[in-house]
Structure prediction request, 738 residues.
Amino acid sequence: MASLRSFLQCNFDILRKTFVILFVNVRDALNQAMDEELERDERVFLLGEEVAQYDGAYKVSRGLWKKYGDKRIIDTPITEMGFAGIAVGAAFAGLRPICEFMTWNFSMQAIDQVINSAAKTYYMSAGFQTVPIVFRGPNGSSAGVAAQHSQCFAAWYGHCPGLKVVSPWNSEDARGLLKAAIRDDNPVVFLENEMMYGVPFELSEEMMHKDFVIPIGKAKVERQGTHITLVSHSRCVGFCLDAAAVLAKEGVECEVVNLRTIRPLDVDTIEASVMKTGNLVTVEGGWPQYGVGAEICARIMEGPAFNYLDAPAVRVTGVDIPMPYAKILEDHSVPQIKDIIFSVKKVLNM
Amino acid sequence: VQNPPSPLLSLWPGGTRMVVSARSFADFTPQASFPIKKCDLHRLEEGPSDEALLTREQGLQYYRTMQTVRRMELKADQLYKQKIIRGFCHLYDGQEACAMGIEAGINPTDHLITAYRAHGYTFTRGVAVREILAELTGRRGGVAKGKGGSMHMYAKNFYGGNGIVGAQVPLGAGVALACQYQGNNQVCVTLYGDGAANQGQIFESFNMAALWKLPCIFICENNKFGMGTSVERSSASTDYYKRGDYIPGLKVDGMDVLCVREAIRFAADYCRAGKGPIVMELETYRYHGHSMSDPGVSYRTREEIQEVRTKNDPISMLKERMLSNNMSSVEELKEIDLEIRKVIEDAAQYAISDPEPSLDELCNHIYARDPPMEVRGTNPWVKLKSVS
Prediction:
C-alpha cells in the first residue's frame, strides 16, 4: 500500500502536467494572474505591505519580487492612507497599479482615497482623468481573527458609483476576474477571501490561457435548479453548493448563482433565475443591515421577477454583531450550510 | 512684434499683441537683475540664488498672467454675489505670485496638483479663463463640462482641484512615483496649505517620498489661516518648511514672483538630480476669506488686509520693479490691463450665456472605456443611460 501511494505521489506531477485539467488553488490562481499581467504590460506594478520580500502576508505575491524586482513590486510602510493615495496618483499619471491591502479592514484608513480620489474622479473630470487601479486583498471573516479583522466590505464599496467591485469565489473566478480587473481602465475593488486561498479547483486549458478573462458585471449560474434560487458571492457560494447537494437528496433542486461581481450587479441573471424558480434566498457572509442581500431583494421587488415569487425573498447573512473570538461563538456568527438549508425549507414551506 | 516663448501666451486670442506706445522698444531695458529675499534653509548647505534675472518679456508675461488671475478671481467674486456661481468658491487673489512663480520655474511637461483654492493654477496650467468661469457657473462649456465645479478642474499634467484637505498630497507623491518609474526626468509639484500641513497623510507621503527618493516638490502655501484658524492656533510648529524633518526645506517669500521662481528652479533641479523630495514653504496671503461664505474679517483685521495690499501686493511689486527699471511704461501696463479686462468680460459673458449641461449628460462618465450601461434614476421606473 505504502509503495503504491508513493508511486502515485511521484507520478502525480507528471500526470498533472499531462492532463489538460489542472488543480490550482485560489492563491496560485491570483499569483499567476498577476505574474502574467505584470509580464504583459510594463505599466502594471504591485505595492502593499510585505508584498515583495516577504512574498506577501498570505503568500499571494510569492516569487513576484524575485522575478520583477524593486521597481515593480514595492514594499510599503504601514501607512495605508499614504500608499493608497500614492497608488491612485500613479494611476492618474499613466501607470496601472495593483494596491494590496493586507486585509480590507485596513482599507478604512484609506477609504477616502478609494472613494473620493479614485472612484469619483472620472465623473468629476467629465471623462478627462481615468484611474486604472486595482485595490485587492482578503475580505470578510477568517478564522479566529476577531472583530477588527473580520469585516466584509462588499456592501460599503458596492454602494459607490464609479467603482467596480468584484468578489471571486473559486480559482477560475480569481484568475479571470483579476486579469479583467487589471486590464480595466476603472478603479476596481477586488475582494478576496483568506479562507479560500488554499482551496484547489479544477482549471481547464482554456482557463489557463494567458488572455483568459471573465467579464466584470456578469454572474454565473454554478448549478441549475428549478425550485429555488440561491444567490451568493465569495466563499458562501461553496456553502450554497453544499446545501444544494444535501437538499437534492430531499428532492429540492436549487439553482445557485455566483454573483462574481457586486457592482455592477448582474440583475438580469438573478431575475431570469427567480422567474424560473419562483423563490429566492440570498446568502452572504457580511452583516444583514443595508447589505448585498438587501440590495438584491429590493431590486427583485422593483423588477419583473416580483410577480413570479411564490414567497417573500429572504436573506441568509452573518449575525449582526462584531465578530467574536471563541471558536464556538465565531462558528455561530457566520452562515453555515444548515442555515441555508433551514431558510430554503422555510421559504418553500417544507 | 515679439512672441515670447511662453506657452501661456498662446492662449491669448490672436497671439501676443504688443502695445503701441509713445516710446519704441529700443527705449525699454531688455532685462535687469533684482535682489531677492534669501530663503531660510533647512538641511541645505546652499539655497537658491539671492538674485533673479528678469527679462522684459518675462516681466510682461508674469504681469499679464498674475493680473489675469487677479481679475478672474474678482469676477468670480462678483458672479458669486449675483448668485450665478453657487456652492464652494475659494478665491486666490493675493497669492498670484505663487502660481506664476511656480509655472515660470517648471516645464509644461512637469506635473502639478493642488487643493481647492485652484483657479489660479488651473489658469497657469493652461486652461482658458472662459472655461474656468463656465465651470464655476456650471455650464457645458466649462473645463469639466459643468460636472466638477470650482474644486474639480483638470488639465494635462494638472490633477486638480481636490476637495478633501490633504488628500492631494499622497496623490502628488504618486504622480512623482510615476515620473520616476517612467524615467522621464519630470517632477511633480504637490501643493497644500498651512491648514492641511498637519494632516497625517502628508507625513506618510513625506516618509515614502524620502524613502524612495521620489521627484516630488512638496509646497506649503502658508497664507496664515486655515479657514478661520490662524497658524498659531493650529500648529505646534509653524515652521512648515521644516516639517519634512529629514527632508530638506526652504522658506520662500511667496509674494515675490521672482523669489518663487528661483526657489522652484532650485527645487526642481534638486529633484531631477535624483536627490529625492524637497519641501518649500511659500509665505503668502489671501485677500478674500477662506471661501465666499467667509467674510474673512472675524479672525483678522481689515487693517492687516489693507497693509498687505499696500505694502506687499505681488502684482504691484512686479509693476514697480519694471517701471523703476524702465522695463515697461505705465501706458503699456495699462494697455495690458485693458486687454485683460476685455478677456475677463468676454469670458464672463460666455460663462453666463452658455447653456447648462444637457440632462443626457447626467449619468455619463461613470466608467471609462466601457459599453453604454443603464443607471437607476430616482425611482425604479426611471432608467437612465450612461456612456463613457
Remarks:
- Confidence is low (pLDDT under 50) at residues 1-17 of chain B.
- The first strand of chain B starts at residue 31 and ends at 35.
- Chain B has two domains: 31-357, 359-387.
- The domain at 31-357 of chain B is CATH 3.40.50.970 (Rossmann fold).
